[in-house]
Amino acid sequence: MAGVVKLDEIDERIIALLREDARRTITDIAARVNLSSAPVKRRIDRLERLGVITGYTVAVDHAVIGPTIEAFTELRLAGNADIDEILGQVEQIPEIHEVFTMAGDPDALLRIRVTDVEHLKAVVNRLRRTGRVTGTKTLMVLDRWSRSG
Fold first, then answer.
1. How far apart are CA 94 and CA 112, in angstroms?
2. pTM assigned to the model
3. When you count CB atoms within 10 A of the terminal residue's CB, does the N or C end of the chain come out lower?
């Protein structure tokens, strides 16, 4: 495992600005952190090289694309289940967008996006048929809020 990277206040502000808008220009960031563009570019390149910034993303409003349901499903696994094996099976299900393995109960938490309740039922049933899942609990998302930065 790589060592911990020490960030100064400017690095943290640059990261916060990029979290707010990953398409923000170097010039805009430079103005907001009171530096010229060249040192800001060097800092961003350094943060990428060190693995602090691992990529850039886009936020999508799924309601605009079409009706979808987002849900979280807790997985409880058999005592002898290999977490990596389960993750391998979960990766084959395109409706699963994130997996968090947990210490304690449950063993994993999955973020799922489907078109309707029947679709959600089919995904949960597919998980249950893996032979290693001993229990599930699914919670449907009503709304969401996220802290940027």
1. 9
2. 0.66
3. N
